[in-house]
Amino acid sequence: MASYGRRWDALYAWLDERLDLTAIGKIAQKKDVPVHRHTIWYYLGGMTLFLFVVQVCTGMLLLIYYRPSADEAYESVQFLMAEVQFGWLVRSIHAWSANLMIFTLFIHLFSVLFMRAYRPPRELTWVTGMGLLGVALAFGFTGYLLPWNELAYFATRVGTEIVGVFPVVGGFLLRVARGGEDVTGATLTRFYAVHVAFLPLLTTAILGLHLYLVQKLGMSVPPRVEREGGPAGRMKFVPDFLMRDLVGWLIALALLAALAAFIPAELGTKADPFAPAPAGIKPEWYFMFMFQTLKYLPAHIMGIEGDVVGILGFGLAGLVVLLLPFLDRRTARGEKSPLVTWLAIAAIVFIIVLTYLGYTMSPTA
Amino acid sequence: MRRRRAGSVAASIVAIGLAGVCGPPVLRGQAPAEDNCRVCHAALGDPRLTPPVEAFATDVHSARGLGCADCHGGDPSVAGMEGMDPRKGFVGRPSKRRSIDLCGRCHSDATYMRQFNPSLRVDQVAEYRTSVHGQRLLQRGDTAVAACANCHPAHSIKPAVDPTSSVNPLNVSTTCGACHASAEHMRAYGIPTDQKAKYERSIHWEAMSVRRDLSAPTCNDCHGNHGAAPPGVSSVGNVCGQCHSVQAAYFGGSRHADTFQMIGAPGCATCHNNHEILASQDGMLGVGEGAVCGNCHSPDDPGGVVATALRQAVDTLRWSLDSAAAILTRAERAGMEVSQAQFDLDAVITELVSARAAIHSFALDSVRPIVDEGLAATDTAFVRGRRALADLRFRRTGLAVSVLIILALVAGLSLKIRNLRQARAGVSHGGNHG
Amino acid sequence: MAENQSAPPVASRRRFVDWLLGTSVGGLVAAVVYPAARYVVPPASAESAASSVTLPFSPGDVEPNTGRIFKFGSQPGILVRLASGEFRAFSAKCTHLGCIVQYRADLSQIWCACHNGHFDLNGHNVEGPPPAPLPDFEVNVRGDQIVVSRGA
Asked: Which of A188, A351, B296, B366 is most buried, judged by most C-beta within 10 A?
């Protein structure tokens, strides 16, 4: 035991001379987390990060066998599922972790919102976080097409069709998104490039900024807690908070493994651009509420096409959420802002109801 | 076929007189420098005289350089009515009876036909004389029957390979049906007129019209074209067996062959119908609802028992094949590697098809071995499918192990967290701890 | 506080917890590294069989004027070696009703026993019920290997 300790110390000293580990260690030791009844929500950001790391690792493994061409993509995924050892596991974890990550991301977003953590000085943290939301949804949308199966092909057709609804630039955006007029092998290659290169680089940049800001500005304490006299105490990040983080991450890992084993990722049939669209095309669940809303809008609203109104409406809503720190003057001043709370609750209810309807309403309704 | 009135007065007087006089044209189908017949008749604008000229441009004879006078006689170099000179061989519009000899003048002459199409047959007229149409026309003078120009429209004759030809396989049933599907026309003969309608519901017509398989049979393939007559009751099997050789061989060796002959049943058509031959289904076997064996056999007579057993054998094989395929597909969709099993199962289709053909022996001894071979293969596939799905269960074992490890780690961490908390609480209370 | 009595149990408890942590971390690392390692090692069939297959026998095993059934993915194929030594490959599923065809050396044709269908050595349906020719494959002999692939 003692000799190991001495060797470890020697190694540490060698690295410390070059990397100034002591300074980093001091910062880590200083970092602490306020403890109050809402502390549990602090774990969600880290959880999302963990799931993202899982995505990166499984994604890299998938890259070894995946082939990004319309002729070979489906077969390569089939090969991966059937012949590669634990290929089914890597792919299933990748698929489930994507869903779980976006789920925790949404909970993280709403918890930050309810706790008003976006108020000054943390406006940029919120903005970069919204950037990460956009990146995550883009990851989901581009990744979904990659197996080039029937469901993905038609979901992408519908999804990119909606992009084309934007006034003025819609057609141009659609062609850029699809790599042509229709969803073809060109779309696949383009989505692949975005999914494995563009978005990871973007994530690195935005995430780096986001984490730096969190580190620099520390954890925000909800105004409610502050009004009641502040947090009960502070928990050291290392090792206390981190170990609790780890427990959460391990449970998430176990959940992923269980989902992968009991509900492995499906493949379905290969995409056939000339086959008629199957009934009941659905987007991934995180897009479902928007998709279903568009279905309910009438064909024309005050002379403008219903779809355009819907898209612009969602765009506007997204913009409001993005600019929330700057729009919520009351919270910035330190006052209560029940409007924000109620709007957020309304949004959550809307999302849940529309998602539910999307899955239960028959396709012809 | 449209205007079946008697020929013009001039033609009938002159034609009979000139029957058989003229031989084939001496010239090798060289159209004269001016074909005045064509010129004049085209200019007339008469609904009876002009259309033939217009149609003739599409005729195969016209393409070979033959003109009006080569069939109708007369002198095409002379303008005006003088060209229609009986002394120059003019026959005008020939009667139905006369037309046979007129066409046969060239078409039965092998030496002559060799100049144009050496592979074309030259026995059409001889065949025609043996046909029902020929016999009724020549022996009984019935002019309502078909002769050359009924099926080969006189001025727009095209070879059978031409899709617009009246004798192209796709059009033959319409050509025959022009008379045979007309209740009015066939009233005097007392034969049914539903053959065309029935044929168009058949699998042969579907093969031809939908799947464009022109080798499928139409009227002339079973009835003959120039020597058209229904095959005798005992020859139906031979006719069907031209294409369906495997089933015909089985049938010929079966007990039904002699029995059907004895009772005068028309061979294959007894169960499969003659014109309305539908796609065969397994449901035709046996003595149940919709099964043809039940038309003669009762469930407990020896034949009925065999029929039921045959049906059961085929059904079992089909069901086995379907369920084995289903389980393999399920395993494949779940990500298991089953391509070898699927490949081996594919071969069972051969057994199923062979078994269905062997049914025509009406003997279990021919069918059982094939079915048993197929069942052995489906059983193997089933086993492999089950094994593949069982491998899925292996995943769950792996999962259980992983989850246990994770839970142990979680327990360890939780304990550690508690220890740390206690340690800190102890320190804040003062006192030493070992 | 009875510190003396509590010291040994606390120490042993801490040792147990440390041991538990260490062992389970080791177990977790193994449980993650093992599948990843197996995954990275390429499987027996290096590529998916969707577009090309290397046959499990060598050219020398196939006599002239014989045919052999092989597996192309999950579909049957027939490899024919002509009398001249040339290799040809076709789908072995008869285009009539899907029976597996065979090679008839006496006819130098591919034959389907189900309904007496005949295909010539170009895969064309020449006799009997099959309505269409057998789809053909590209055959390449690479040294001691026969590689059959779907044509471009």
From this structure: A188
